[in-house]
Amino acid sequence: MNFLEVALNEFLDFFRLGGLYGILMSGNYSSLRSIDGILAVLAPLAPVVFFGEMLFVLVLSKGKIKEYKVTLLIILTNRILSHLLGFSVIMFCYGAFSRFAIVHASMTWYWFIFCYLFYELGTFVYHYTAHNIRLLWCFHSIHHSPEDLNAVVTLRTFYLENLYTEFVRTTIMVLSGAPLMMYFLIMIIDSIWGAFVHVSEKVMKNGRLGILNKLVLTPSHHRVHHARNPLYLDTNYSSMLNIWDHIFRTYQEEDKQVPVEYGITREYDSNNFWDVYFGEIILLWKDVKSADGLITKLKYIFMPPGWNPVHPQDTAKYLRTEFIRQQKEDAAVANSLNK
Q: What is the mean pLDDT of the chain?
């Protein structure tokens, strides 16, 4: 395989154009009416959102390429690692756990709704644990490190987290009895919506989307999720349907009185690839190395970020609870003064 073929395959794979390219080369356009054809058409939409928004910001909004520098380096790193350490978690999970499915769904609209709810549950589980187990946060923090949100941030992830995410979400989908093709369809829809909810405020200032803000996860909800303000910490874990956030009480509306501040709570250089990609891992290693006793070392690894034996309450949950308590006290004082 020569360089041009390798480059073409890499381009088709990254932009998810392989399906459409195959149809174009075969001339069998009738296949567009099949589920495979539908997937081929939908698959490239997420990359279009990623890079379409980036071009819009750079050209029309006079953005600066340095805003995307670290993100593009992370995407390149993950692409290289995916080739070196390629492993199909999805196919492994389907092969290993299909026999334990609670039901066997089919490609119908009502099973689609059922399976989508399980997909969202899988998203909630991996996302919640990524915020509440420090080792997993070391990987997930990379996605939260940008101080300016945009669609390309969707691809700003740690390679090992991608494997963990696929394992958790796929296992839950397999147990729900979702057919593999339905899972692929849901993944593509989710990736398109995931790119959209990361859209920059330079492109969409108000991300509430009117009545949709009450029905689905909107850019406004996801901006809250990416905020480091105490009120917003560890909320809105869902992907498109925020039902599980309501059930598990992690839902938070954007408060006009609390402007969103993007990023993570520790001091870091958001434009430094090494600090962004490995900074949290290095800090965890230092804490574990200096900790007294095995139990404390394990707690540093598995307790929520911010936990330490001297001030074990210095976690996002505690900070958020204290902020809300203070808000209520201030509101009560203001009401009493107005009477």
A: 90
